[in-house]
Amino acid sequence: MILETKPDFEKCMERVNAWYANELLDRPPVRFSAHNEQYNVVDDSSRWPSPKDKWFDAEYQVGKFERDIAGREFVAETFPLFWPNLGPNAYPCMLGCEVEFGDVTTWARPTARSCRELGRIRFSTDNEYFKKLECMTLLALSRCTGKYLVGYTDIHTGVDCADAFLGTERLLVEMYDDPEGVKTFIARCASHFAFVFGHFNKILRDHGQPSTTWIGIPSQESFHIPSADLSSMLSREFFREFALPSILEEVRLAGRNILHMDGRGVAGHLDDFLAIKEIDGIQWVQGVGGDKPIMQWCGLIEKIQHAGKGVVVDLEPSELDAFMERIHPRGIYLCLATNGMEEQKYIVSKLERWR
Q1: pLDDT tens column, 193-202
Q2: pLDDT given at position 160
Q3: Is the distance from CB of 159 to CB of 230 less than 8 angstroms?
Q4: For residues 178 and 184, is the Cβ–Cβ distance under 8 A?
Q5: Cα–Cα distance measured from residue 309 to residue 332, given in angstroms and rounded to the nearest whole number
Q6: Is it the case that residue 42 has pLDDT exceeding 80?
Q7: Peptide bond before residue 51 is cis, with ω within 30 degrees of 0
Q8: Of 245, 151, 240, residue with least CA distance to 191
Q9: Which Gene3D superfamilies match (predicted)?
Q10: Fewer CB within a 10 Å sphere, N or C end of the chain?
Q11: Residue 133, Cβ neighbours under 10 Å: how many?
């Protein structure tokens, strides 16, 4: 692939592919953007009748991205990537869930009062969210050649999808009161994932794109980010009973899987994640407040490395020196929030000396 905006694309992909293979080329890959960076910018919404209309304005969403990358230099493994975004509950919405749209994210509105309301889960390719995401994808693909990559949307299936439909409190209560009903509900939520994932991944591959999504790590094989954020509230027993089965199904569909492990609660299930052979790497999201700084998590990161998995690590530039002293570079994929070109290039030169 040749990108005018990223002339070193092939060399960067060599580093990414080495990382997938748990090998180290000349240095670890590094992306100069923060986790959830796309949710940090609020723009004017006054021209649309409602927040949803702004989110659904495909021409605006693609055009805004193109304006944002115009004239920008993409250092190291920071790839120019547009991915169609209708919020973190896009997949539940394809199945009939309702959401409230804000300026930068969406919140699910529980529509099922019980896990026995399986009829609430209805998927159709005529669903407005499915059609709009397809529209955004095709629009971006018609304009991206030589300029940027196109990915697919954020997909949360399994227990997190059930959480969107039922609400956290109701779902947790019914895990005690009606465990078989909950398992059936979660399985129904997950039953359309293979089609949705395959559909959008095929569109990208038919247009010569690598497979990727919001995390910005491309793959020549099909790529997925499994997650189970609700597992932060589950014991090991309940995690294995309710959340793990759908994760095991998800990872069989993609050639590459990077698991999204969001915070210390989810990290309580790390041993189960590491036992899944289809998981190539883990994105460690350390959280905020007392969950920072990154150095308190070095033991967890080393455990992932010793298991032969890659680990995606967000950290502050001020933490980098101490991190490099403690951690071996093999298997590390860094994400640093800095926009200064000179600082980025200085960091890259520093990483080249990391052994």
Answers
A1: 999 999 999 9
A2: 98
A3: yes
A4: no
A5: 9
A6: no
A7: no
A8: 245
A9: 3.20.20.210
A10: C
A11: 25
Question: Beta 149-150 vs 81-82: how paired, if at all?
Answer: parallel
Domain ranges for the chain:
9-351
Tens digit of each residue's pLDDT (9 = 90 or more) over 113-122 = 999 999 999 9
Contacts of 208 (CB under 8 A, 6+ apart): 1
Q: Report the topology of domain 9-351.
A: TIM Barrel (3.20.20)
Over 80: is that where the pLDDT of 317 sits? yes
Question: d(Cα 167, Cα 149) in Å, to the nearest integer?
Answer: 35
Amino acid 346 reads: Y
Q: Which residues contact 307 (CB under 8 A, 6 or more apart)?
A: 274
Neighbours of 231 (CB within 10 A): 28
Residues 76, 19 contacting (CB under 8 angstroms)? no
Residue with the larger pLDDT of the pair 44 and 41: 44
Cα gap 286→321, rounded to integer Å: 18
Q: Are strands 310-315 and 281-285 parallel, antiparallel or unpaired?
A: parallel
Give the pLDDT score at 339. Answer: 73
Residue type, 135: C
Instruction: State the Rg of the chain over Cα.
Output: 20
> Side chain identity at 293, as an amino acid letter?
P
Contact (CB, 8 A) for 32 and 351: no
SS3 55: helix
State the number of CA atoms in the 13 A half-sphere of 316 facing the CB: 8
Q: Tell me the pLDDT tens digit for each residue of 249-297.
A: 999 999 999 999 999 999 999 999 999 999 999 999 988 888 889 999 9
pLDDT, tens only, 125-159: 999 999 999 999 999 999 999 999 999 999 999 99
Query: Tell me, what's the pLDDT at 33?
Result: 84
Calpha distance 269→234 (Å, rounded): 9
Alpha-carbon distance of 213 to 256, in angstroms, equals 12
Q: How much is the pLDDT for 290?
A: 83
Give ∠ CA 322-324-327 in degrees, rounded to 5: 105
Going by C-beta distance under 8 Å and a sequence separation of 6 or more, which residues neighbour residue 305?
311, 327, 328, 330, 331, 332
Judge whether 145 and 76 are in contact, CB under 8 Å.
no
